[in-house]
Amino acid sequence: MEFTKGHGAGNDFVILPDPDGALELTPGLVAALCDRRRGIGGDGVLRVVRAAKHPEGAALAGEAEWFMDYWNADGSYAEMCGNGARVFVRYLVAAGLADPAGETLPVATRAGVVRAVVQGETIAVEMRRPRMYDTASAALGGLTLAGTAVDVGNPHLVCSLPAGLDLAALDLTRAPDVDPTVFPAGVNVEFTTPAEPVDGTDGHVLMRVYERGSAETLACGTGACAVGAVVLRDAGQDTGTVTVDVPGGRLTVTVTDDSCWLAGPAVLVATGEIAPTALQP
Ligand SMILES: N[C@@H](CCC[C@H](N)C(=O)O)C(=O)O
Q1: Most ligand 1 atoms within 8 A of CB, residue of 74, 110, 126, 220 to mutate
Q2: Main-chain dihedrals φ then ψ at residue 114, nearest 5 degrees
């Protein structure tokens, strides 16, 4: 089985080319591939399949040639992955499966069609506008933090830390506790604090994230979009640009009247062959 390994700001993926949808991808195989000791290692898997050849992509096949079949490291799948979409497009272009010269490159996902623009080392992807729909809290390490529930195609809870709490000191080795009635399908939880030293722009924050299905990751693109929307709301703005620094690098989020752009690095680092029989469940 061929694979490519790539990442977007340290959010890393095992990419599986499967144009005709012939691969039997199971939760066990995904988890084994993402195992950092016994497999390739990754926060998730991106299967590259023609939209027409995938049951969930077929309805979008007229609008996009390729479907991003995204799976979390634990073998669950998610509706959307912002960094995954950017890395997916990097792969399509590198493999000669898509032309970056076009105005925007459509990609089908479980959350609908997103559109990407390749700008050298940066790939920007246009997703739906984040929708803030509730308030909730996250409990971890004896702390209870208030947050905003945000839908970016997948679910997020954005908790802005009260003054005096150190983002770096949060224990994200286990999942924060959240109210399952607010998040029946689980949730990605983002923690933010203003960037220091204050650099003169309001829209600049630091973020850490505990991802549903993948644990703490170095970056989460949809999470950055959720954070961007909350930062703008708190500044009394509907639209604008927010810089989100994550442990793996920098993401830029631009919220417009009807969409949200996520921009940042997208890198392919290796290509190889896996012997699936050698992967341990
Ligand atoms: N890292 C991703 C989000 C991946 C999906 C997430 N873990 C979920 O289950 O919703 C991103 O860059 O958006």
Answers
A1: 220
A2: -110, 160
- What pLDDT is attached to residue 278? 87
Determine the distance separating the centroid of ligand 1 and the alpha carbon of 200, expressed in angstroms: 30
Separation of 44 CA from ligand 1 center, angstroms?
8
Q: Residue with the nearest Cα to atom 3 of ligand 1?
A: 81
Structure tokens at 246: 């994550």
The first and second tokens of residue 260, run together, are: 């949200």
So which residues are the catalytic ones? 81, 220
Burial of 53 per CB tally in 10 Å (0-12, 13-18, 19+): middle
Measured from the CA of 217, which atom of ligand 1 is nearest? 1
CA of 79 to the centre of ligand 1 (A): 8
Amino acid at 78: A
Distance CA 223, CA 205 (A): 12
Q: How far is CA 41 from CA 18, 150, 163, 209, in A?
A: 19, 29, 36, 19
Supply the residue whose CA is at minimum distance from atom 2 of ligand 1.
81
pLDDT for the residue numbered 103: 82
Domain with CATH 3.10.310.10 in the chain: 2-126+266-278, 131-257
Domain 2-126+266-278: CATH architecture, name and number where available: Roll (3.10)
- Residue 111 is encoded by which pair of tokens? 């959350």
Q: Which residues of the chain have pLDDT under 70?
A: 197-202, 281
The third-level CATH classification (topology) of the domain covering 131-257 is Diaminopimelate Epimerase; Chain A, domain 1 (3.10.310)
Distance of CA 143 to the CA centre of its chain: 26
Please give the Cα distance from 71 to 80 (Å, whole number). Answer: 9
* Mutation choice for ligand 1 from 214, 218, 250, CB with most ligand atoms inside 8 A: 214
Residue 274: both structure tokens together: 């896996």
